[in-house]
Write a structure and sequence with these properties.
single chain, Elongation Factor Tu (Ef-tu), domain 3, Beta-galactosidase, Chain A, domain 5, 15-stranded antiparallel sheet, 2 helices, 29 strands
Length: 403
């Protein structure tokens, strides 16, 4: 009998043969207890130890759980207890793991509730922004309550064959959308942080400052050690448009970052923090936020020394300077037919050469991405709409609730 695969959140584990299913006589809550073993080989030692970290990081998280062999237990659970034991032999390494899962419900008996913030981003341009929200691919019965309806939708094709994600536009203020989804489909369209090509599940985990990738299937951000600090790529359904950015702060251009830290690692949003030390003392922090369904990455630069903070397209780029409206955008289409865009919510200095900056400051918020379709974008993907969606980006917490 071959091993099955257990998918718990982002993590794929070997499905053990045994499963215990209990009901609490006092509360009526159902729970499942499972255990298994992961080893090197077949995993490399680095992969195995990363997986051990990720098992521990599952604690207290509400997640979809998909059983291959015992599929009658597939559904949504909260991880109430987790543990592992690492054994390191000269010729092999392995760890045993155990998980206790509190059952929320089967996928046909559960709704996802997206709790959205009620305020939009403070800005200098008197913009109300566009409230928008993107559930997972395959979501059904999307409902924002009786107080109104979304103004429309835009469909965006994801990379890696994950399908098309629907972004709901013009979400009414003060609502928490509910929607249905199968446990396997809840993974589709998620935001992912990969370290050395391995998707990670937790926060506060051990990471290298290089070799990472942040992606939602529409935007991909990777670090560069030489020309440019960050490479920002956008998927248009057939190809990636790519632009590299240089950062300057505290009087000089930054070199490669010294460390990266995961601050938030949820399906709907991932936030990471990059740290660069200054000489002789001080630091620059760059926080990057990527949301499910978004065409842009959000950034926030903090410097310990007040000076000019700037973002420059590496190698130069002819741009239309719409700084008075909160953004600059490439003057013409690139080889893939798209146009780079970046901007800030607060008054900044723009240029016709691919630079935005803010003088005498220790903070600079920005967004960066591409206008898919260039001079002829689809409705919902134009330059001013992307700016408005940046202004209207809402913090989200998604929970599984019984119907």
């Amino acid at each position: 009998m071959s091993w099955g695969t257990l998918t718990i959140g982002r993590l794929y584990l070997r499905e053990g043969y045994d499963l215990s299913h209990q009901v609490n006589a006092t509360t009526g809550e159902q729970s499942v207890t499972i255990e298994g073993l992961e080893s090197s080989p077949p995993w490399t030692e680095a992969q195995l130890r990363a997986r051990q970290e990720d098992v521990i990081a599952l604690y207290d998280r509400a997640l979809p759980v998909v059983f291959e062999a015992k599929d009658n237990h597939t559904g949504f659970y909260t991880v109430s207890d987790t543990g592992s034991k690492l054994t390191d032999w000269p010729e092999a390494e392995f760890f045993g793991w155990n998980l206790s899962l509190k059952r929320v419900g089967t996928e046909n008996a559960v709704d996802m509730e997206s709790r959205l913030a009620s305020v939009v981003r403070l800005n200098s341009f008197a913009l109300t922004g566009e409230r928008w929200h993107a559930p997972a691919v395959g979501a059904y019965a999307y409902f924002v309550g009786t107080g109104g309806t979304p103004s429309g939708t835009v469909s965006r094709i994801l990379a890696d064959g994950e399908g098309t994600i629907t972004v709901y536009r013009g979400i009414p203020a003060g609502v928490n959308p509910t929607w249905g989804i199968t446990a396997p489909n809840y993974l589709l369209g998620r935001v992912r942080f990969k370290a050395d090509s391995q998707e990670r599940s937790g926060t506060g985990i051990r990471l290298s400052a290089t070799g990472w990738e942040l992606t939602n299937g529409l935007v991909r951000v990777t670090p560069l050690a030489s020309s440019g600090i960050l490479k920002i790529e956008s998927w248009d359904g057939g190809a990636y448009s790519s632009t590299s950015l240089d950062f300057a702060a505290a009087g000089g251009t930054l070199a490669a970052f010294d460390s990266v830290t995961l601050l938030k690692n949820d399906f709907e949003c991932v936030v990471l923090r990059l740290v660069k030390s200054l000489s002789p003392s001080g630091r620059v922090l760059v926080d990057l936020t990527l949301r499910r369904g978004s065409r842009f990455v959000e950034g926030f630069v903090q410097s310990s020394a007040s000076n000019t903070i700037s973002l420059t397209v590496n190698g130069g780029l002819a741009t239309t300077n719409n700084a008075a409206s909160g953004y600059i955008v490439a003057s013409g289409d690139d080889a893939a037919g798209n146009r780079y865009i970046m901007g800030s919510p607060l008054t900044f200095t723009g240029s016709t050469g691919g630079v935005i900056s803010l003088a005498s400051t220790t903070e600079f918020a920005f967004f960066a991405g591409h206008v898919i379709g260039g001079g002829s974008p689809a409705s919902g993907d134009g330059a001013t709409t992307i700016r408005d969606q940046y202004i209207g980006s809402l913090a989200e917490q998604t929970l599984a609730v019984k119907r």
